[in-house]
Amino acid sequence: MGDVHKLREKAGETEKITINVGHVDLGHVDLLVHEGFYSNRTDFIRTAIRNQLATHSDAIKQSIVRNTLELGLRTVTREELEEVRAAGRKLRLRVLGLAVIAPDVTPELARQTIESLTVLGALQASPAVKAALSDRMS
Q1: How confident is the chain (138 residues) per 10-residue block, as mean pLDDT?
Q2: Which residues contact 77 (CB under 8 A, 6 or more apart)?
Q3: pTM over 0.85
Q4: What are the boundaries of each domain within the chain?
């Protein structure tokens, strides 16, 4: 897939989201759960999401290639950023999945070495690092 960098996926980790659903739609979901098609509402919603992702898989793959995204879990360590700084470079991070900036990365090091940060999914970093990079995140 061209410039796509496939990262390892960490099983078992999820991100909590909140959605608003109409009463009738929710009733339909509950009916399917009651009839045994799904074990609970969450099972139904996860299945629906996976089905939609499968339906649009070609478009997703094309977009990932077009946007040169890294897939899965991307961990940014202090050591990596120190090497980037020593080489006089800056990172442009584009992640689809989970981006983790290690807890020992200081806001100053992050600002010196991360030129831009795009995360489609979730970002885990200290509040100070997130604040330091806020003008570089899209």
Answers
A1: 51 80 95 96 96 94 81 94 95 94 98 96 96 96
A2: 102, 105
A3: no
A4: 23-59, 69-136
